[in-house]
Design goal:
Length: about 550
């Protein structure tokens, strides 16, 4: 009894077998068994490992990179784990930066600009019993001053707020989340170190949590989102989540309410921008998590089957697969476009007793409403919001293909993103395919060809004006009527034609919209009240419909 009490005070387990199972059993698997191809290891990751080992430290490639190497895949990212502290790691590399508060790690940077590569280096962490950790009543934000001097701290729910206590490799492996992510590869001697049968699970295509899943989700609720992300990423390879790992997900998702919104926002972007957005939506539905993780993610799942959002998700997956950059502003602009478009139309038409607004002010106000309702203060007032606003505000400008507008639009910094957005709208039938093709050619053409394209638009507009100014119901002239009189329209017809030409100068209406002269003249006769407002709203609505 006394021994058990002492063991509890020292943080030891009640029995040797339990302690052994908690940290697993070290297995060193040789190259002839794991069959990893050394050529798949990034040279910069190899250099980081070698530099640390030559300085007398342990160092291994770790995590998802080892999993991918076992599966014969070339990893996109490489992480390194070592027993060197962050300060010791930083001292060995010319361009290395210590980042993070909750988990302090080092980024070793190679190259510059867009072509730079980051190798993330973490120090082996001790497996700490939360009962022995320092506790705070609030969260990261409310307890910032209190947490500053703490190395291991948890909140009232057991969520880890600080985890910067260094320890041996076996304890570092135990505190990782999934068995297939808890293996260590030494590229020098080509040994894989495995404590929790990660190689076996990789061969069985099983995603399994280390330890008790419910407890691990409580320690860090973001593991719920990581479980979804990994299951979506590995689903194409045939991986399935172990039943015990999946069982507590729905109930544990309530713990996400205590996670800072900014961290959830970042995790949501990881779900959607790792090249498996469509698979992520499928996993969320399969696991019963279509709502409750993050409000904006709920919208994505709800609209994932709509043609426009589905096309945006597929396009994002394609770009990631091709190694091209993706911007969160573009994808979120696509997801929330339906809200902006509907609010824009309502404001122009003056629905719900509102006064009709001109097109551009109506669009600006609709965008503000969407930011307030959907994004809030997390990232809605930063660069992401500015980029989304530019993409949306450029859309009506694609209708104007005369004068200097095309030149100034192409010169905009966000033109390519706005064009790709409009291109997707054309793909789903929301915009004329001819307009999308015209802008595609204009944006890549030389000066002479651009002039030809502008002249082509002017000719099309003149042709439409001539068609609209021709009287479709004019009576045939009598034989005895003078020719000059036959060609001369009456005063009312001239007034109608001038009115139609005036409308055409503002926007090019669709073909076949011409109406009888007398009817159009009566509609355009000055009125008070709803009549005048309808005319203004109708003109704006015509421009929006042409998109």
């Amino acid at each position: 009894m006394i021994k058990k009490f002492i063991d509890k005070l020292l943080g030891k387990s009640a029995g040797g077998a339990q302690g052994k199972s908690r940290f697993g059993k070290r297995q060193e698997v040789p190259a002839e068994v794991h069959k990893i191809d050394p050529a798949l290891v990034d040279e910069r990751a190899r250099n980081v490992v070698t530099t640390l080992q030559q300085a007398g430290y342990e160092a291994y490639v770790v995590g998802g990179a080892v999993r991918d190497l076992l599966l014969g895949l070339r990893p996109k990212d490489f992480d390194v784990a070592t027993n060197a502290t962050p300060e010791q790691v930083k001292s060995l590399f010319r361009r290395a930066f210590i980042i993070g508060r909750r988990f302090r790690i080092v980024h070793v940077v190679y190259g510059r600009g867009r072509e730079h590569e980051v190798i993330e280096v973490s120090t082996f962490r001790a497996y700490m019993d939360n009962a022995a950790a320092e506790q705070v009543a609030g969260n990261e934000r409310t307890s910032k001053g209190e947490l500053a001097s703490m190395k291991h701290a948890v909140d009232a729910s057991g969520r880890v707020l600080r985890d910067n206590v260094w320890g041996p490799q076996e304890e570092d492996a135990a505190r990782r989340d999934f068995t297939v992510n808890a293996m260590y590869y030494d590229p020098a001697n080509q040994i894989v170190v495995d404590y929790h049968n990660g190689i076996r699970d990789a061969q069985k295509l099983t995603l399994r949590m280390i330890g008790d899943p419910a407890t691990r989700y409580r320690e860090d609720p973001v593991r719920i989102i990581r479980a979804i992300r990994f299951s979506a990423k590995l689903a194409a390879l045939g991986f399935k989540m172990e039943a015990k790992t999946a069982a507590p997900l729905v109930e544990s998702s309530k713990l996400l309410a205590d996670v800072p919104q900014s961290r959830l926002f970042d995790e949501m972007l990881k779900l959607l921008q790792t090249g498996h957005a469509i698979a992520t939506v499928e996993q969320l539905r399969k696991l019963g998590l279509v709502t409750g993780i993050y409000p904006l993610l709920d919208v994505v799942v709800e609209r994932a089957d709509s043609p426009f959002v589905k096309a945006a998700l597929q396009d994002t997956d394609r770009r990631v697969g091709e190694g091209k950059p993706v911007a969160p502003s573009f994808l979120l602009a696509c997801v929330l476009w339906a809200d902006v478009r509907d609010g824009w139309a309502q404001r122009q038409e003056g629905r719900h007793g509102q006064r009709p607004q001109p097109p551009f002010p109506a669009l600006q106000d609709a965008i503000d409403d969407v930011f307030n309702a959907r994004i809030g203060d997390v990232s809605g007032r930063g660069k992401l919001a500015a980029d989304m606003r530019e993409i949306w505000m450029m859309q009506p400008r694609f209708d104007k293909r005369t004068g200097s507008t095309p030149y100034s639009l192409v010169d905009q910094a966000r033109f390519r993103a706005a064009f790709d957005f409009m291109r997707l709208r054309a793909d789903v039938g929301e915009v004329s395919e001819a307009i999308a093709e015209w802008w595609q050619e204009f944006s890549t053409a030389d000066d002479v060809r651009q002039q030809d394209l502008l002249e082509q638009v002017r000719d099309e507009q003149k042709t439409r004006q001539r068609v609209r100014t021709r009287d479709p119901v004019a009576p045939k002239p009598s034989r005895g009527e003078p020719a000059a009189r036959q060609r001369q329209p009456d005063a009312e017809s001239r007034q109608d034609h001038e009115a139609e030409i005036e409308v055409d100068a503002g926007a090019v209406p669709p073909d076949g919209e011409a109406a009888a002269p007398r009817k159009r003249r009566r509609r355009r006769k000055p009125r008070t009240g709803a009549g005048g407002g309808s005319g203004s709203g109708g003109e704006g609505g015509g421009s929006a419909a042409a998109e």
